[in-house]
Design goal:
This protein is α+β, with helices and mostly antiparallel strands and 413 residues long. It is built from 17 helices and 17 strands. It has helices at 6-20, 29-34, 55-68, 119-126, 145-151, 158-161, 164-167, 195-210, 212-218, 242-245, 279-290, 302-310, 312-321, 339-355, 368-379, 381-385, 408-412, and strands spanning 24-26, 48-51, 72-75, 90-93, 101-105, 110-113, 131-132, 168-174, 180-183, 185-186, 239-240, 254-261, 263-264, 268-276, 296-301, 328-336, 362-365. The strands form five sheets. A five-stranded antiparallel sheet has the order 5-6-12-8-9. Helix 1 packs antiparallel against helix 3 and helix 12 crosses helix 13 (312-321). The longest helix has 17 residues, at 339-355.
Length: 413
Amino acid sequence: MTNANPAARSGRLADRLRAQLRGEVLFDRASRGRYSTDASIYQIDPIGVVIPRDERDVELALAIARDEHVPILPRGAGTSQCGQAVGAALVLDCTRHLNRIVSFDADAGTVTVQPGVVLDALNAWLKPHGLFFPVDVSTAAQATIGGMTGNNSCGARSLHYGIMVDNVRAIDAWLASGELLSFGEVRGDLAGAHPRYRELVGSVRAIRRREAGEIEARLPRVQRRVAGYNLDRVAEGPFNMASLLVGSEGTLACFRQIELALSAIPRHKVLGVVHFPSFHQAMDDTRHIVALSPTAVELVDATMIALSRERPAFRDTINRVIRGEPEAVLLVEFSGEDRGALLGRLAALGEQMGELGLPGSVVELIDPDAQREFWQVRKAGLNIMMSMKGDGKPVSFIEDCAVPLDHLAEYTD
Protein backbone atom coordinates (compact mmCIF):
# COMPACT_ATOMS: atom_id res chain seq x y z
CA MET A 1 0.00 0.00 0.00
CA THR A 2 1.15 3.52 -0.63
CA ASN A 3 -0.59 5.07 2.38
CA ALA A 4 1.64 4.69 5.46
CA ASN A 5 -1.19 5.21 7.99
CA PRO A 6 -2.32 1.74 9.16
CA ALA A 7 -5.85 2.88 10.01
CA ALA A 8 -6.29 4.53 6.63
CA ARG A 9 -4.90 1.47 4.84
CA SER A 10 -7.21 -0.82 6.77
CA GLY A 11 -10.20 1.43 6.12
CA ARG A 12 -9.53 1.54 2.38
CA LEU A 13 -9.16 -2.24 2.25
CA ALA A 14 -12.42 -2.72 4.15
CA ASP A 15 -14.26 -0.27 1.89
CA ARG A 16 -13.10 -2.01 -1.27
CA LEU A 17 -14.03 -5.43 0.06
CA ARG A 18 -17.49 -4.30 1.20
CA ALA A 19 -18.15 -2.67 -2.14
CA GLN A 20 -17.46 -5.81 -4.17
CA LEU A 21 -18.10 -8.88 -1.99
CA ARG A 22 -21.43 -10.54 -1.17
CA GLY A 23 -20.12 -12.09 2.03
CA GLU A 24 -19.33 -10.54 5.40
CA VAL A 25 -16.41 -8.16 5.80
CA LEU A 26 -15.42 -7.77 9.46
CA PHE A 27 -12.89 -5.17 10.54
CA ASP A 28 -14.32 -4.23 13.96
CA ARG A 29 -12.23 -4.86 17.04
CA ALA A 30 -14.44 -7.62 18.46
CA SER A 31 -14.42 -9.64 15.25
CA ARG A 32 -10.69 -9.30 14.81
CA GLY A 33 -10.27 -10.34 18.44
CA ARG A 34 -12.24 -13.54 17.83
CA TYR A 35 -9.96 -14.44 14.93
CA SER A 36 -6.74 -13.45 16.73
CA THR A 37 -6.49 -16.83 18.49
CA ASP A 38 -6.69 -20.52 17.72
CA ALA A 39 -6.18 -23.52 20.04
CA SER A 40 -2.54 -22.48 20.61
CA ILE A 41 -0.80 -20.09 22.99
CA TYR A 42 -0.45 -17.50 20.21
CA GLN A 43 -2.49 -14.35 19.67
CA ILE A 44 -2.09 -12.02 16.68
CA ASP A 45 -4.72 -9.54 15.53
CA PRO A 46 -5.63 -9.99 11.86
CA ILE A 47 -5.98 -6.97 9.59
CA GLY A 48 -9.56 -7.98 8.92
CA VAL A 49 -11.80 -10.96 8.26
CA VAL A 50 -13.74 -12.00 5.16
CA ILE A 51 -16.42 -14.69 5.27
CA PRO A 52 -16.88 -15.35 1.55
CA ARG A 53 -20.37 -16.32 0.41
CA ASP A 54 -19.12 -18.04 -2.74
CA GLU A 55 -16.00 -18.72 -4.76
CA ARG A 56 -16.35 -15.43 -6.59
CA ASP A 57 -15.92 -13.67 -3.23
CA VAL A 58 -12.65 -15.53 -2.69
CA GLU A 59 -11.38 -14.49 -6.11
CA LEU A 60 -12.30 -10.85 -5.47
CA ALA A 61 -10.75 -10.87 -1.98
CA LEU A 62 -7.52 -12.30 -3.38
CA ALA A 63 -7.45 -9.68 -6.14
CA ILE A 64 -8.10 -6.76 -3.77
CA ALA A 65 -5.56 -8.00 -1.23
CA ARG A 66 -3.00 -8.43 -3.99
CA ASP A 67 -3.64 -4.91 -5.22
CA GLU A 68 -3.35 -3.52 -1.68
CA HIS A 69 -0.26 -5.64 -0.87
CA VAL A 70 -2.00 -7.38 2.03
CA PRO A 71 -1.17 -10.98 2.98
CA ILE A 72 -3.95 -13.59 2.94
CA LEU A 73 -4.54 -16.22 5.64
CA PRO A 74 -7.03 -18.99 4.70
CA ARG A 75 -8.39 -20.33 8.00
CA GLY A 76 -10.12 -23.58 8.91
CA ALA A 77 -11.69 -24.09 12.32
CA GLY A 78 -8.72 -22.79 14.31
CA THR A 79 -7.91 -26.11 16.00
CA SER A 80 -4.18 -25.56 15.36
CA GLN A 81 -1.91 -25.82 18.39
CA CYS A 82 1.09 -24.05 16.87
CA GLY A 83 -0.50 -20.80 15.73
CA GLN A 84 -0.99 -21.74 12.07
CA ALA A 85 -4.42 -20.10 11.96
CA VAL A 86 -3.41 -16.65 13.26
CA GLY A 87 -1.42 -13.84 11.69
CA ALA A 88 -1.36 -10.18 10.71
CA ALA A 89 -3.23 -10.80 7.47
CA LEU A 90 -6.65 -10.73 5.87
CA VAL A 91 -8.29 -13.90 7.19
CA LEU A 92 -10.54 -15.89 4.83
CA ASP A 93 -13.02 -18.00 6.82
CA CYS A 94 -14.56 -20.55 4.44
CA THR A 95 -16.32 -22.62 7.11
CA ARG A 96 -19.72 -20.92 6.93
CA HIS A 97 -20.54 -21.06 3.23
CA LEU A 98 -17.83 -22.92 1.30
CA ASN A 99 -18.64 -26.26 2.89
CA ARG A 100 -20.33 -28.29 0.14
CA ILE A 101 -19.63 -31.78 -1.10
CA VAL A 102 -18.94 -31.07 -4.79
CA SER A 103 -18.89 -34.57 -6.27
CA PHE A 104 -18.74 -38.21 -5.19
CA ASP A 105 -17.67 -41.38 -7.01
CA ALA A 106 -18.45 -44.48 -4.96
CA ASP A 107 -16.89 -46.83 -7.52
CA ALA A 108 -13.61 -44.90 -7.62
CA GLY A 109 -13.73 -44.26 -3.87
CA THR A 110 -13.26 -40.51 -4.16
CA VAL A 111 -15.06 -37.39 -3.01
CA THR A 112 -14.41 -33.74 -3.89
CA VAL A 113 -15.23 -31.11 -1.27
CA GLN A 114 -14.92 -27.41 -0.63
CA PRO A 115 -12.35 -26.48 2.04
CA GLY A 116 -14.91 -25.62 4.74
CA VAL A 117 -16.36 -29.15 5.01
CA VAL A 118 -15.98 -30.52 8.56
CA LEU A 119 -14.55 -34.03 8.85
CA ASP A 120 -17.33 -35.48 11.04
CA ALA A 121 -19.99 -34.06 8.70
CA LEU A 122 -18.22 -35.60 5.70
CA ASN A 123 -17.97 -39.01 7.31
CA ALA A 124 -21.63 -38.90 8.38
CA TRP A 125 -22.55 -38.21 4.74
CA LEU A 126 -20.33 -41.04 3.51
CA LYS A 127 -21.39 -43.66 6.06
CA PRO A 128 -24.49 -44.94 4.18
CA HIS A 129 -22.15 -45.68 1.25
CA GLY A 130 -19.87 -47.83 3.44
CA LEU A 131 -16.97 -45.39 3.02
CA PHE A 132 -15.13 -42.89 5.19
CA PHE A 133 -12.19 -40.49 5.09
CA PRO A 134 -9.65 -42.18 7.36
CA VAL A 135 -7.48 -39.28 8.58
CA ASP A 136 -9.37 -39.17 11.88
CA VAL A 137 -7.96 -36.26 13.87
CA SER A 138 -9.12 -35.87 17.48
CA THR A 139 -10.83 -32.57 16.58
CA ALA A 140 -12.98 -34.23 13.90
CA ALA A 141 -16.12 -32.43 15.09
CA GLN A 142 -14.51 -29.08 14.21
CA ALA A 143 -11.59 -29.71 11.84
CA THR A 144 -12.18 -28.72 8.21
CA ILE A 145 -10.76 -30.56 5.23
CA GLY A 146 -9.08 -27.36 4.05
CA GLY A 147 -7.34 -26.91 7.39
CA MET A 148 -6.37 -30.58 7.55
CA THR A 149 -4.91 -30.37 4.05
CA GLY A 150 -2.96 -27.21 4.83
CA ASN A 151 -1.65 -28.80 8.04
CA ASN A 152 -0.97 -32.29 6.60
CA SER A 153 -2.95 -33.72 9.49
CA CYS A 154 -2.28 -37.14 10.88
CA GLY A 155 -4.91 -38.80 13.10
CA ALA A 156 -5.01 -41.85 15.34
CA ARG A 157 -5.17 -44.40 12.51
CA SER A 158 -2.33 -43.09 10.37
CA LEU A 159 -0.34 -46.28 11.05
CA HIS A 160 -2.76 -48.09 8.75
CA TYR A 161 -4.27 -45.43 6.48
CA GLY A 162 -1.49 -42.85 6.20
CA ILE A 163 -1.74 -39.08 6.68
CA MET A 164 -3.30 -36.30 4.59
CA VAL A 165 -0.61 -36.27 1.91
CA ASP A 166 -1.27 -39.98 1.34
CA ASN A 167 -5.02 -39.45 0.93
CA VAL A 168 -5.35 -36.24 -1.13
CA ARG A 169 -5.77 -36.99 -4.84
CA ALA A 170 -6.03 -33.48 -6.31
CA ILE A 171 -6.48 -29.83 -5.34
CA ASP A 172 -7.95 -26.93 -7.31
CA ALA A 173 -6.37 -23.77 -5.94
CA TRP A 174 -5.80 -20.09 -6.61
CA LEU A 175 -2.23 -18.83 -6.78
CA ALA A 176 -1.25 -15.47 -5.32
CA SER A 177 -1.47 -14.15 -8.89
CA GLY A 178 -5.15 -15.10 -9.00
CA GLU A 179 -4.72 -17.96 -11.49
CA LEU A 180 -6.87 -21.00 -10.75
CA LEU A 181 -4.98 -24.25 -11.37
CA SER A 182 -5.70 -27.95 -10.88
CA PHE A 183 -2.91 -29.74 -9.01
CA GLY A 184 -2.88 -33.51 -9.41
CA GLU A 185 -1.11 -36.46 -10.99
CA VAL A 186 1.69 -35.42 -13.34
CA ARG A 187 2.16 -37.86 -16.20
CA GLY A 188 3.67 -37.53 -19.65
CA ASP A 189 4.50 -34.19 -21.21
CA LEU A 190 1.45 -32.31 -19.78
CA ALA A 191 0.23 -31.53 -23.27
CA GLY A 192 -2.85 -29.36 -23.00
CA ALA A 193 -2.13 -28.33 -19.41
CA HIS A 194 -2.22 -24.68 -18.36
CA PRO A 195 1.12 -23.02 -19.31
CA ARG A 196 1.58 -21.76 -15.77
CA TYR A 197 1.05 -25.27 -14.43
CA ARG A 198 3.67 -26.69 -16.79
CA GLU A 199 6.03 -23.96 -15.64
CA LEU A 200 5.43 -24.82 -11.98
CA VAL A 201 6.03 -28.53 -12.57
CA GLY A 202 9.31 -27.71 -14.26
CA SER A 203 10.30 -25.35 -11.44
CA VAL A 204 9.66 -27.80 -8.60
CA ARG A 205 11.46 -30.57 -10.48
CA ALA A 206 14.45 -28.25 -10.87
CA ILE A 207 14.39 -27.46 -7.14
CA ARG A 208 14.16 -31.18 -6.36
CA ARG A 209 17.22 -31.87 -8.52
CA ARG A 210 19.15 -28.97 -7.04
CA GLU A 211 18.42 -29.95 -3.45
CA ALA A 212 18.55 -33.73 -3.87
CA GLY A 213 21.60 -34.06 -1.64
CA GLU A 214 20.11 -31.97 1.16
CA ILE A 215 16.78 -33.78 0.94
CA GLU A 216 18.52 -37.14 1.21
CA ALA A 217 20.77 -36.02 4.06
CA ARG A 218 18.37 -34.00 6.19
CA LEU A 219 14.73 -35.04 5.77
CA PRO A 220 13.87 -37.31 8.71
CA ARG A 221 12.88 -40.91 7.99
CA VAL A 222 9.58 -40.78 9.84
CA GLN A 223 6.04 -41.18 8.61
CA ARG A 224 4.84 -37.85 9.99
CA ARG A 225 6.75 -34.64 9.34
CA VAL A 226 5.68 -31.10 8.55
CA ALA A 227 9.02 -29.34 8.70
CA GLY A 228 8.66 -27.97 5.18
CA TYR A 229 7.26 -28.63 1.73
CA ASN A 230 6.99 -32.24 0.52
CA LEU A 231 9.77 -31.86 -2.04
CA ASP A 232 10.83 -35.47 -1.53
CA ARG A 233 7.61 -36.51 -3.30
CA VAL A 234 8.54 -34.58 -6.45
CA ALA A 235 9.99 -36.83 -9.17
CA GLU A 236 11.20 -36.69 -12.78
CA GLY A 237 8.61 -39.36 -13.60
CA PRO A 238 4.98 -39.46 -12.43
CA PHE A 239 4.19 -37.72 -9.14
CA ASN A 240 1.34 -35.75 -7.62
CA MET A 241 1.65 -31.96 -7.57
CA ALA A 242 -1.11 -31.80 -4.95
CA SER A 243 1.37 -33.33 -2.50
CA LEU A 244 3.34 -30.09 -2.62
CA LEU A 245 0.32 -28.09 -1.43
CA VAL A 246 -0.51 -30.50 1.40
CA GLY A 247 1.19 -29.17 4.52
CA SER A 248 2.00 -25.82 2.92
CA GLU A 249 -0.07 -23.91 5.53
CA GLY A 250 -1.62 -21.62 2.93
CA THR A 251 1.75 -20.25 1.80
CA LEU A 252 1.58 -21.58 -1.78
CA ALA A 253 -2.06 -21.34 -2.78
CA CYS A 254 -5.63 -20.86 -1.55
CA PHE A 255 -7.70 -24.03 -1.89
CA ARG A 256 -10.89 -23.99 -3.96
CA GLN A 257 -11.74 -27.70 -3.71
CA ILE A 258 -9.99 -30.90 -2.65
CA GLU A 259 -10.36 -34.43 -4.01
CA LEU A 260 -9.92 -37.12 -1.36
CA ALA A 261 -9.28 -40.86 -1.56
CA LEU A 262 -11.76 -42.77 0.60
CA SER A 263 -11.51 -46.09 2.43
CA ALA A 264 -14.06 -48.79 3.13
CA ILE A 265 -15.46 -48.76 6.66
CA PRO A 266 -14.02 -51.92 8.27
CA ARG A 267 -16.62 -54.52 9.17
CA HIS A 268 -15.10 -55.27 12.57
CA LYS A 269 -12.87 -53.62 15.16
CA VAL A 270 -11.38 -54.85 18.43
CA LEU A 271 -9.55 -52.79 21.03
CA GLY A 272 -6.93 -53.75 23.58
CA VAL A 273 -6.32 -51.32 26.45
CA VAL A 274 -2.78 -52.08 27.63
CA HIS A 275 -1.92 -51.03 31.21
CA PHE A 276 1.60 -49.89 32.11
CA PRO A 277 3.23 -49.25 35.51
CA SER A 278 5.33 -46.43 34.04
CA PHE A 279 5.00 -43.91 31.25
CA HIS A 280 8.49 -44.73 30.01
CA GLN A 281 7.62 -48.41 29.55
CA ALA A 282 4.47 -47.50 27.60
CA MET A 283 6.57 -45.47 25.19
CA ASP A 284 9.35 -48.05 24.98
CA ASP A 285 7.00 -50.98 24.29
CA THR A 286 5.18 -49.13 21.50
CA ARG A 287 7.79 -50.29 18.97
CA HIS A 288 7.00 -53.91 19.81
CA ILE A 289 3.23 -53.35 19.63
CA VAL A 290 3.50 -51.70 16.21
CA ALA A 291 5.09 -54.90 14.90
CA LEU A 292 1.64 -56.53 15.26
CA SER A 293 0.30 -54.16 12.53
CA PRO A 294 -2.48 -52.50 14.53
CA THR A 295 -4.77 -49.90 12.97
CA ALA A 296 -4.04 -47.44 15.78
CA VAL A 297 -1.93 -47.04 18.92
CA GLU A 298 -2.85 -44.10 21.15
CA LEU A 299 -1.85 -42.98 24.64
CA VAL A 300 -3.94 -42.04 27.68
CA ASP A 301 -1.72 -41.11 30.63
CA ALA A 302 -2.36 -41.10 34.38
CA THR A 303 -3.27 -37.41 34.47
CA MET A 304 -5.95 -37.84 31.82
CA ILE A 305 -7.26 -40.97 33.55
CA ALA A 306 -7.58 -39.14 36.88
CA LEU A 307 -9.26 -36.11 35.30
CA SER A 308 -11.65 -38.33 33.33
CA ARG A 309 -12.74 -40.01 36.55
CA GLU A 310 -13.76 -36.57 37.86
CA ARG A 311 -16.03 -35.92 34.87
CA PRO A 312 -19.49 -37.52 35.01
CA ALA A 313 -19.53 -38.04 31.23
CA PHE A 314 -16.44 -40.28 31.37
CA ARG A 315 -16.35 -41.67 34.93
CA ASP A 316 -18.27 -44.89 34.27
CA THR A 317 -16.30 -45.63 31.12
CA ILE A 318 -12.97 -45.21 32.92
CA ASN A 319 -14.06 -47.31 35.89
CA ARG A 320 -15.28 -50.13 33.65
CA VAL A 321 -12.06 -50.36 31.66
CA ILE A 322 -9.13 -49.19 33.80
CA ARG A 323 -7.71 -51.67 36.28
CA GLY A 324 -5.94 -50.21 39.31
CA GLU A 325 -3.80 -47.08 38.96
CA PRO A 326 -1.66 -47.39 35.82
CA GLU A 327 0.72 -44.59 34.91
CA ALA A 328 -0.39 -44.92 31.30
CA VAL A 329 -2.50 -47.05 28.98
CA LEU A 330 -2.18 -47.60 25.25
CA LEU A 331 -5.26 -48.04 23.07
CA VAL A 332 -4.33 -50.68 20.49
CA GLU A 333 -6.94 -51.18 17.76
CA PHE A 334 -7.16 -53.88 15.10
CA SER A 335 -9.72 -53.64 12.30
CA GLY A 336 -10.70 -55.61 9.23
CA GLU A 337 -13.25 -57.94 7.64
CA ASP A 338 -12.46 -61.18 9.52
CA ARG A 339 -13.58 -60.97 13.15
CA GLY A 340 -11.89 -64.25 14.05
CA ALA A 341 -8.55 -63.04 12.72
CA LEU A 342 -8.87 -59.81 14.71
CA LEU A 343 -9.58 -61.70 17.91
CA GLY A 344 -6.47 -63.74 17.20
CA ARG A 345 -4.38 -60.60 16.87
CA LEU A 346 -5.85 -59.25 20.10
CA ALA A 347 -4.84 -62.49 21.83
CA ALA A 348 -1.37 -62.14 20.31
CA LEU A 349 -1.16 -58.68 21.89
CA GLY A 350 -1.82 -60.20 25.30
CA GLU A 351 0.83 -62.85 24.71
CA GLN A 352 3.32 -60.22 23.59
CA MET A 353 2.77 -58.13 26.69
CA GLY A 354 3.35 -61.23 28.81
CA GLU A 355 6.69 -61.75 27.06
CA LEU A 356 7.52 -58.10 27.82
CA GLY A 357 6.90 -58.67 31.52
CA LEU A 358 3.31 -57.47 31.79
CA PRO A 359 1.06 -60.54 31.85
CA GLY A 360 -2.65 -59.77 32.23
CA SER A 361 -2.12 -56.11 31.31
CA VAL A 362 -4.55 -56.08 28.35
CA VAL A 363 -8.25 -55.32 28.84
CA GLU A 364 -10.07 -56.51 25.73
CA LEU A 365 -12.96 -54.42 24.36
CA ILE A 366 -14.93 -56.38 21.77
CA ASP A 367 -18.28 -54.58 21.97
CA PRO A 368 -18.41 -51.66 19.46
CA ASP A 369 -20.20 -49.37 21.94
CA ALA A 370 -17.58 -49.98 24.61
CA GLN A 371 -14.81 -49.23 22.12
CA ARG A 372 -16.51 -46.05 20.95
CA GLU A 373 -16.99 -44.81 24.53
CA PHE A 374 -13.33 -45.29 25.40
CA TRP A 375 -12.15 -43.66 22.18
CA GLN A 376 -14.27 -40.64 23.13
CA VAL A 377 -12.15 -40.24 26.27
CA ARG A 378 -9.02 -40.11 24.12
CA LYS A 379 -10.56 -37.72 21.60
CA ALA A 380 -11.60 -35.35 24.39
CA GLY A 381 -8.05 -35.29 25.75
CA LEU A 382 -7.29 -31.56 25.41
CA ASN A 383 -10.66 -30.51 26.83
CA ILE A 384 -10.19 -32.93 29.73
CA MET A 385 -6.72 -31.54 30.46
CA MET A 386 -8.08 -27.99 30.44
CA SER A 387 -10.60 -28.97 33.14
CA MET A 388 -7.85 -29.17 35.79
CA LYS A 389 -8.80 -27.24 38.92
CA GLY A 390 -6.52 -24.68 40.53
CA ASP A 391 -4.00 -22.21 39.18
CA GLY A 392 -1.86 -24.76 37.35
CA LYS A 393 -3.06 -25.30 33.80
CA PRO A 394 -1.54 -27.32 30.97
CA VAL A 395 -0.30 -25.30 28.02
CA SER A 396 -0.52 -26.95 24.62
CA PHE A 397 2.32 -25.76 22.40
CA ILE A 398 3.66 -28.83 20.56
CA GLU A 399 1.56 -30.42 17.85
CA ASP A 400 2.06 -33.75 16.07
CA CYS A 401 5.76 -34.08 16.73
CA ALA A 402 7.28 -37.29 15.37
CA VAL A 403 10.40 -39.29 16.17
CA PRO A 404 11.53 -42.80 15.19
CA LEU A 405 9.86 -45.39 17.42
CA ASP A 406 13.21 -46.54 18.78
CA HIS A 407 13.71 -43.02 20.19
CA LEU A 408 10.15 -42.49 21.50
CA ALA A 409 10.79 -43.34 25.16
CA GLU A 410 13.95 -41.25 25.30
CA TYR A 411 12.22 -38.34 23.53
CA THR A 412 9.25 -38.27 25.89
CA ASP A 413 11.58 -38.41 28.90
